[in-house]
Amino acid sequence: MPDQVRAKLHLASGRAVLLAYADDVLPPAAELQASVDHLKRAIQLHSACGAKKDLERAERLLKKHAATPPANTGEGASS
Question: For 59-68, how does the pLDDT look when each residue is reduced to its tens digit (9 = 90+)?
Fold first, then answer.
């Protein structure tokens, strides 16, 4: 399979995560990391495949996810 075609497959896989969630919903970190990996691989295979902006967006979301504190469920808290 030619590298350009393989790059398009990785691009589609990476974009799928970004498009699967609404703008106000943060995708899970594991899915974002997989998206970043696919987009980086797409760029490695074909630098003009159009994944650079998507990669920037996915990395921004991943950093935002890392900066977000875990939700406090209240378990184990004594009153």
Answer: 999 998 888 7
Instruction: Record the pTM.
Output: 0.79
How many domains does the chain contain in total?
1
Domain span at residue 61 reads 3-67
25, part of any domain: yes
Residue 47: half-sphere exposure toward Cβ, Cα within 13 Å? 0
- Residue 76 resides in a domain: no
Digit-coded pLDDT (tens) for 21-79: 877 788 898 999 999 999 999 999 999 999 999 999 999 999 988 887 766 555 555 54
Under a CB-based contact definition with an 8 Å cutoff, are residues 28 and 68 in contact?
A: no
